[in-house]
């Protein structure tokens, strides 16, 4: 498990990277799955990572599991790597935006 200082930093980094609320993310995951042929139940909509991010947003820091911490690192790395590639997001870059929104980050939000 991660030590307390590292976990504090990860918690802050994760919540800075995930700039959508749990309600916004849940709604996005439902919308992003709506185009599929067999629509899943609303609480199961979206990619597994997006669902895991949603679950983390609903937890307290003290309730995090090792799997939660792994997903938090993954999301922070994904958002950070994307920000390094392109500093100025474009509205027309919808595939990129959809991918990031599926993990709770809207690149058009400042």
The share of residues in helices is 55-70%
Order of helices and strands: HHHHH
Q: From the alpha-carbon coordinates, what is the Rg to the nearest angstrom?
A: 14 Å
| Overall average pLDDT | 84
SS elements, strand count: 0
Gross morphology: globular
Word description of this protein:
With 110 residues, the protein is mainly α. It has five helices and no strands.
Helix and strand layout, with pairings?
Elements: H1 4-17, H2 22-33, H3 48-57, H4 66-85, H5 94-101
Helix pairs in contact: 1-4, 2-3, 3-4
Q: Any key phrases for this structure?
A:
110 residues; 5 helices; 0% strand; globular
Kindly summarize this structure in a few lines.
With 110 residues, the chain is mostly helical. It contains 5 helices and no strands.
């Amino acid at each position: 498990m991660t030590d307390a200082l590292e976990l504090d930093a990860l918690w802050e980094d994760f919540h800075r990277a995930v700039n959508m609320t749990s309600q916004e993310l849940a709604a996005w995951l439902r919308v992003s799955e709506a185009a599929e042929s067999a629509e899943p139940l609303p609480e199961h909509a979206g990619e597994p990572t997006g669902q895991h991010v949603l679950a983390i947003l609903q937890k307290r820091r003290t309730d995090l599991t090792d799997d939660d911490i792994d997903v938090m690192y993954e999301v922070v790395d994904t958002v950070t790597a994307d920000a390094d590639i392109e500093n100025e997001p474009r509205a027309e870059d919808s595939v990129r935006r959809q991918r990031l929104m599926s993990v709770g980050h809207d690149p058009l939000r400042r």
